[in-house]
Design a protein that fits this description.
The complex is a heterodimer of chains A (404) and B (66). Chain A has 404 residues and is α+β, with helices and mostly antiparallel strands. Chain A has 15 helices and 10 strands. In chain A, a hairpin with a 2-residue loop joins strand 6 and strand 7. Chain A is globular. Chain B is built from 2 helices and 4 strands, in the order βαββαβ. The chains are: A alpha+beta (404), B alpha+beta (66). The structure holds protoporphyrin IX containing FE and iron/sulfur cluster (SF4). The site of protoporphyrin IX containing FE has 25 residues of chain A, from helix 11 and helix 15.
């Protein structure tokens, strides 16, 4: 066991290097693969930035996702240093075998084949939103006109959430991912969403329809578990894909040669989406707690210690991806960590793939001269949000000056 | 080459199907892995290994015949 001292950072860095909104904070690359950082309350923690180390931690059952065992990496205002245990059904924060029970109930609904069967419906939703954009004319905010509504409609349809109810939970969903939201606002948003989904689950129980929530009322889940599973699915399915579509479009607009690949070469779409996922790594951080002493990169993570994972830094590890800071849609990039790794690897990843594979090429083919309507440095970034992305993406198309 | 899958470890992430749809499938009910070709042709070796490496739960094993 080496005792070489590890580099230490003053906290989890979140600021992007100036003029390079797609690159992770620069401090991260300097401390690969492992560093020390203080967590909420000043407790010393660990930060993993290497690809191999991040894979090792996420696939090791000696590391737990249970929230009550961890200290927060990015504390929010008004939050306690220690988190309470996640309620039953929030299986991202559960370890096997509890985790396995929930996950098994759902995997059959999210298989590669089932999600591909949705392709046509996703393409129709995409086309409807492009029609609306075209009718209204540019400029438009791509986030509200396209990136948010497409995944929202799709996940609602899968779960069985009536489209006309969007307004009731959209506010709550936004609060969850608002870095400026206080603990109190978060609590209130949570209760709102919970109350909404509880009513919905009750309705599905008495009048089942053809969707995931109705199917789950037929399982051995308690009412509380069912509502929490629904909250997790809705929460995880709304903002993630939306941020990928908006930030991904921003990245393509900033790399015109790569934009042309996505627009003009159908063969390159699938691999190109994986490369965008790798390059952008939108989940800011994952975290785990050591259930016992574990050796990692020659150091001992002590039982009870919290480990923060920078998926963005791991996905830019030159030991795994040559020339990692280059966006290259023709790169062979499967195995990136943007959907996580190990037993918690994203349940919705096949759905997200279907959505992105439809959304990027359709947008670029509909508006072949799509461009930013503001200077790139004026695009507001979500640097401290749990999921990285842009607040707004003003875009336009057609002849210069048209529609203004 | 032989492929085996441990369905107790599988979490239904689908990386195997995505990587080599001719070798793997997910069953309809649980979404867990099914090996379609337990002894595939030698030219499928690379993809078989790749699927095993990408599987997030370590459910797949590819062994040599020897
Ligand atoms: C591009 C879009 C998406 C990204 C980048 C993403 C990313 C992730 C990541 C990194 C994890 C693992 C977290 C960890 O290990 O700590 C995860 C888990 C999860 N994701 Fe996604 N996700 C996306 C889309 C979706 C969608 C559309 C759904 C809807 C069903 C979804 C549902 C989930 C669920 C339920 C989990 C928890 C899985 C478990 O604990 O077993 N995600 N996601
Ligand atoms: S990749 Fe692994 S976990 Fe995912 S379906 Fe295949 S065997 Fe199961």
């Amino acid at each position: 066991m080496t005792t070489a001292p590890l580099p230490e950072l003053p906290g989890m860095p979140t600021a992007r290097p100036s003029g390079r909104p797609f690159d992770p904070p620069e401090e991260l690359a300097a401390v690969r693969p492992l560093a020390r950082i203080p967590l909420a309350g000043g407790t010393p923690g660990w930060l993993v930035t290497g690809f191999a180390a991040a894979r090792a931690v996420t696939s090791d059952p000696r590391f737990s996702t249970r929230s009550e065992l961890q200290r927060l990496v990015l504390p929010r205002f008004g939050m306690p240093d220690r988190m309470p245990p996640a309620p039953p059904g929030m299986f991202l924060q559960a370890d096997p075998p509890e985790h396995t029970r929930y996950r098994r109930l759902l995997t059959g609904r999210f298989t590669v084949r089932r999600m591909r069967m949705l392709t046509e419906r996703v393409e129709r939703t995409v086309a409807e939103h492009l029609d609306a954009m075209e009718r209204a004319g540019g400029p438009a905010d791509l986030v509200t006109a396209y990136a948010q509504p497409v995944p929202a409609m799709v996940i609602c349809e899968i779960l069985g959430v009536p489209a006309e109810d969007h307004a009731r939970f959209n506010g709550a969903a936004r609060t969850f991912n608002d870095p400026a939201a206080t603990a109190e606002e978060m609590g209130r948003a949570w209760q709102e969403l919970y109350a909404y989904l509880r009513d919905l689950v009750t309705a599905k129980r008495s009048a089942p329809t053809d969707d995931v929530l109705s199917e789950l009322t037929d399982s051995d889940l308690t009412e509380e578990e069912l509502v929490n599973v629904a909250t997790l699915l809705l929460g995880a399915g709304l903002d993630t894909t939306a941020n990928m579509i908006a930030l991904g479009t921003f990245a393509l607009l900033s790399h015109p040669d790569q934009l042309a690949v996505m627009r003009d070469d159908p063969e390159a779409v699938n691999g190109g989406v994986e490369e965008l996922m790798r390059y952008l790594s939108i989940p800011h951080t994952g975290q785990r707690a050591a259930l016992e002493d574990v050796e990692l990169e020659g150091h001992v993570i002590k039982e009870g210690d919290t480990v923060a994972l920078s998926l963005a830094a791991a996905n830019r590890d030159p030991a795994r991806f040559p020339d990692p800071d280059r966006l290259d849609l023709r790169r062979d990039a499967p195995g990136h960590l943007s959907f996580g790794h190990g037993v918690h690897q994203c349940l919705g990843q096949q759905l997200a793939r279907v959505e992105m594979r439809a959304a990027f090429p359709a947008l670029l083919r509909r508006f072949p001269d799509l461009r930013l309507a503001v200077p790139p440095e004026d695009v507001p970034l979500r640097e401290r949000a749990d999921i990285y992305g842009v607040e707004r993406l003003p875009v336009t198309w057609g002849p210069e000056g048209a529609g203004r | 080459m032989r492929i085996s899958a441990d369905r107790d470890r599988c979490i239904g992430a689908g990386m195997c199907v995505l990587t080599a749809a001719d070798l793997f499938d997910q069953d309809e009910e649980e979404g867990l892995v099914r090996v379609l070709e337990e002894a595939p042709a030698a030219d499928r070796e690379q993809d078989a290994h790749r699927a095993a490496r990408l599987c997030p739960s370590g459910a797949l094993a590819v062994t040599d015949d020897a």
